[in-house]
């Protein structure tokens, strides 16, 4: 079994004990990704912008393993207000419109920072 981990370098990873992404035998699992920059600041003012930023971070993590957005087979979106489904879905659709991964969006009571309104997970499969 081959295993590669990707770190974004945030203090949360070592404190909580997780990786931004883990690639194992052709699968890449990207952890729940919020739109937060290197300094811990929230990127984006609303659900659309935050989803765009989170997906850019997901894309960067995938790239570190040699995968791309076109390899994504599953996404999960956690939103703090399900009424934001249209804006979150629009941003997701702009990225994955042709890929069309299996996807789930659920409302959660809150995320780690009250300014966050979305968190995204992704799973990719890379074939030779």
From TrEMBL:
CDD domains per UniProt: YjgF_YER057c_UK114_like_6
Pfam hit, one: Ribonuc_L-PSP
PANTHER family, alphabetized: BLR7761 PROTEIN (PTHR43857), YJGH FAMILY PROTEIN (PTHR43857:SF1)
Protein name (Swiss-Prot/TrEMBL): RidA family protein
Gene3D superfamilies tied to this protein: RutC-like
Upper classification of the organism: Archaea, Methanobacteriati, Methanobacteriota, Stenosarchaea group, Halobacteria
InterPro entries hit by this protein: RutC-like_sf, YjgF/YER057c/UK114
Highest taxon listed in the record's lineage: Archaea
The organism of origin for this protein: Halosimplex aquaticum
